[in-house]
Amino acid sequence: MASITSINERTRLASDPGAAEFDVPPVTATDLTAAVDDYTRSLLQRRPTSRRGRLVPRALALADVVGLTLAYLLATLKWGTHGASGSTRDFLVFVASLPCWILVARLHGLYHRDEERADHCTTDDIVGVFHLVTIGAWLLLVFSRLGGWSGPSLFSLAAFWLFAVCIVPLARTIVRRACKRSPAYQQNTVIVGAGDIGQLICRKLIKHPEYGVNVVGFVDRAPKMRRADLPEHIAILGGPERLPEIISQLDVERVVIAFSNESISELLTLLRQLRALSVQIDLVPWLFELIGPRVSVHAVEGLPLIGLPPGRRSAVSRAVKRTLDVVCAGLGLIVLGPAMALIALLIRRDSDGPALFRQTRLGTGMKEFTALKFRTMRVGTDTAEHRDYIRRSMSTEAAAESNGLFKLERSDSVTRVGGWLRKTSLDELPQLINVLKGDMSLVGPRPCIPYEAENFQSHHLERFLMPQGITGLWQVTARANSTYVEALDLDVAYVRDWSLGLDLRLLLRTPLQLLRQRASTA
Question: Which fold has domain 11-16+23-30+187-284?
Fold first, then answer.
């Protein structure tokens, strides 16, 4: 029988060759429960039906019904001929059609992706919701005309479509946030493989509690030494042969296969066993550094192949991206102009120096430009400390600062107003001027300082193939929870998988980051 050994104990034994392996009694159900933390033990008290796979689909279906009904009432209130609910016949037909809407939504996969994808959010549903509302509105129009009754007018139907496209995603966002507060949303997770990649995935999952993934431990016969930034309670629960027992006793719902040292044949046998269990299986693919969200899976006589999209970008797509930048940046400066003037006044009154901070950054093709930001630090702050931090952080094993984030702490240099601006990312608003001038884009890799590029590896230079942006993949998905190297890898991943759809999703998710008051970029 394998034994439960904390990664800290393995680390101690590895660092002390003279230390002997101590005896541990055979693993029992009680031992497995004792090996996990109190929070995991509390999740084990949930009802068997209290699971994300049951909670979220029902909540989203309710959100769709409420959103569609509210859109119908608003449309008929303004453009209907019989008041908010329309005629009795119209209202009954709409109510009777709601199960059909739910069926169409289910066919579009709008209810079960949360269980499969840990990072799924409402912005990923936008296209599906658009299709749902569009198909539903057309079917409502066609069937009403074929049925021989007047049904909704074109104006009320168009208004219903517009209201539904806006209200349904909002309703979904609200219920998702409510679901995430429930213990039923949490998925107990085991990671197979406690090597560099397995422990990296563990850290990323722990740093993102919004994923609702509770890592209960690792499965590995020969784990590496524990990373310093992993919690103490994360343990080695045993070898792969014990995985079915671990899943059963610790109520595991998700298993991540992360480059285990086990043989391929043993892993295949293990995966075939897991397929018979009710668990979500996530595989870290080989060459994962090159695989992004735009990959396609096709097959040749049943043999699956992963297709990487070509790197070429059409002139039309680039023109649309630039047009979106100009329009949004122009409107943003007009709407936010008074707020920016107020922020500039607060900065001038808070400390000596100009309101704007000008700094040389690298843009497309590593071309230098002057980036504008609201000044958040005292005038004359030395950059040597930041240079040294960048050099030290160019390691995948770089440790977080004392605040638990991968961001240089400079509280002695940041002004009082500057600290607030950084938390809300409002210090970056003047970069809208850079976007309007063409130096930057709304979405893209973070524009880096020239001395930062001195530490880049060759593949990191791919980030300069696209315009640098105010927001981007790193800013939305990781922020200060990732090391500097991981942030660079996310920038490269954005460039490799860029599409207009990706830009729109990142733009929609950025306001949520502002509301969470994440730390801004350095």
Answer: Rossmann fold (3.40.50)
